[in-house]
Design brief:
Radius of gyration: 19 Å
CATH topology of the largest domain: D-Amino Acid Oxidase, Chain A, domain 2
Number of helices: 4
Helix content: 10-25%
Number of domains: 2
Order of helices and strands: EEEEEHHEEEEHH
CATH superfamily of the largest domain: D-Amino Acid Oxidase, subunit A, domain 2
Strand order of the largest sheet: 3-4-5-2-6
CATH class of the largest domain: Alpha Beta
Largest sheet: 5 strands, antiparallel
Number of strands: 9
């Protein structure tokens, strides 16, 4: 919709995938989230099993124009070998990941930006057009706050807090080549948990 309105929003749809295991002995909802920073792998309890995934060094990017018009997130092309390689990387810390039966393999296409920051707010030159994108793989955890802020911005004419650093104007008009945007987005994706 943005491009049809003549607005370029420099985002890269990036595959992120995870496994949910079958229930496992000793796993319960009170267990903490585990992050292995150097390997960019995470695991947390989920319905008696573990939900786990990670951030690969060479993420797969997608051009949304090349996907069918009726594409839905559950149709994201997945690659279990990526996750098994990450399980091997953390086999000394989390050996359970290699052996736990997988109940579900799923993924999605979060949008990455070149600087790892959201793009929020009104698009210059398009009255009434607001952007809430570039979740950089944190969409579910921050979407309530983003939704509230953007809704208030639309209704009240100003955000409830200073969001200037996330403005589309910081990237508007910048003619970053697609390959450079993807290079920067890949660098932002892999060290998502701070393993830079």
């Amino acid at each position: 919709m943005a491009e049809a309105s003549g607005i370029r929003i420099p985002l890269v749809p990036t595959r992120h995938q995870l496994f949910v295991t079958e229930p496992l002995d000793g796993v319960h909802a009170g267990l903490p989230i585990v992050r292995v920073m150097d390997a960019a792998v995470y695991a947390r309890p989920c319905e008696g099993g573990l939900l786990w995934g990670g951030y690969e060094e060479g993420p797969r990017f997608f051009d949304m124009d090349e996907l069918p018009r009726d594409f839905a997130t559950p149709e994201t092309p997945l690659d279990a070998d990526v996750l098994w390689a990450l399980a091997d990387d953390v086999s000394s810390q989390l050996p359970v990941l290699r052996d736990a039966p997988v109940r579900e393999h799923r993924g999605g296409l979060p949008t990455m930006t070149g600087d790892g920051q959201h793009i929020l707010g009104p698009a210059p030159g398009a009255e009434g057009f607001f952007v809430a994108g570039g979740c950089n793989v944190s969409g579910l955890s921050v979407s309530p706050a983003v939704g509230e802020a953007v809704a208030a911005w639309i209704v009240d004419g100003a955000p409830p807090l200073d969001l200037a650093e996330l403005s589309i104007e910081r990237v508007a008009g910048s003619e970053v080549a697609e390959d450079e945007l993807r290079r920067c987005a890949a660098w932002e994706y892999r060290p998502f948990y701070g393993a830079r």
